[in-house]
Design brief:
Helices cover 26% and strands 25% of the residues. It has 467 residues and is α/β, with parallel strands linked by helices. Belongs to the ATP-dependent AMP-binding enzyme family.
Length: 467
Amino acid sequence: MPETPQTLPLLPGFQADRPLFLTDSAAVVTQREFLTQADALARTLPTAPYLINLCNDRYLFALAFAAGLIRGAVSLFPPNRLAATAHEIALDYPGAICIADTPVAGLELPLAIVEVPDSLACVEREMPFIAADREVFIGFTSGSTGLPRPHPKRWGDLVGCARAAARRFGFGPESSIVATVVPQHMYGMELSIMVPFATGACVAAARPFFPADIRDALARAPAPRILVTTPVHLAACVEAGLTWPAVDMVISATAPLSQTLAERVESLLSTQVLEIYGSTETGSIASRRTCGDPAWTWYDSVRPLREANGVSVTADFLPAPTMLADLLEFNGEGDADGGFRLVGRAAEMLKVGGKRASLADLNLKLTAIEGVRDGIFVAPDGDRDPVGRLAVIAVAPGLTRQALIAGLAGRIDPVFHPRRVVFVDRLPRNEAGKLPREDLLRILETSTETAIEPALGNRRKGKRHAD
């Protein structure tokens, strides 16, 4: 059955004997084997309209997702793998069951454990085809800017977005992908599941976390190697003092990446570092080379639309114009070739006395200070003097509050200096590298750190605006 605009195969980049997954033991799973295993797993799954996918292993996650596609179920990808989150999601999706590769502590929902089907149960069948307009999964925001919200995704849009990313970054059947991000997050789903499905690229089943594990996963993967990761993982890697295999490309997302860190990564890995811009709502839609032109370049079919309250985008892989949560400054006329500069999230803009700053930019300036391993500015809830109550939570062993403020002095306007600095051993990042706001507020509420006397210019009242 040929591909049409109305129906697309489960593996659009199918080449039967090409590797699709590389396991921790360096065993190869071919595309043919993956299809037969997904079919066999689908036949054993309980009947359910929704599958809450809690798998840790990327290969087993993909098997569960593919089996759900074959069975006609909609997959639900929670922002974390906590039983409480699964219970909360299940309330809105009657009949949902969980599917995981290991038992989940405290889970009271029906659970199917994914195992690789026995080869005797695997029978080669025709390629499954899926309607392009079929809703196949629902992703949930991480909660870093509020409560998690559902975002349904259609099969044709997912394939289209993966193909757009493949054209931009040059993914193909020869590519080997190692990803440190979870596949339940849109960034991880797109780059480590859908791109391999769409192009035939091979992806490591593991999700390495520590630098030595990332190094080992890269060493097991055949060249050309592509590392899909986050600024937090990259910062840990450059500080680890390890010898690294050749890496052809590093792709980063989930948080702004400083040029200083990108330069260190490029030098250490003899590679190029590229950043992705996108969201759960849109998927990836633009990219840039961090050490090159600071402007972002839209993907081929993406077109920005100026709106009264911001910018929306259209694309071949978006069902409708989609509003962006960020403020953009366009180069030239702001068309697809002109590029743009990312100012920051509209909801995270701070304005006082005619001066404006984004929390994202403040965070970049903070983490550029020598001795700061990780850190974030936190604005309080509500509009009552948010600038006057700014706080910083930082991982900076050996630094004092005074030294940190002094480090900020030459980087940001004094009106945006924090009133509180709280040092912690680590920030509460979730598996996607995000920082849930409720966890940050909890740190501030329980900290005994006293306020810092504000700089003179910071005694004026300010407002947080979305403009």
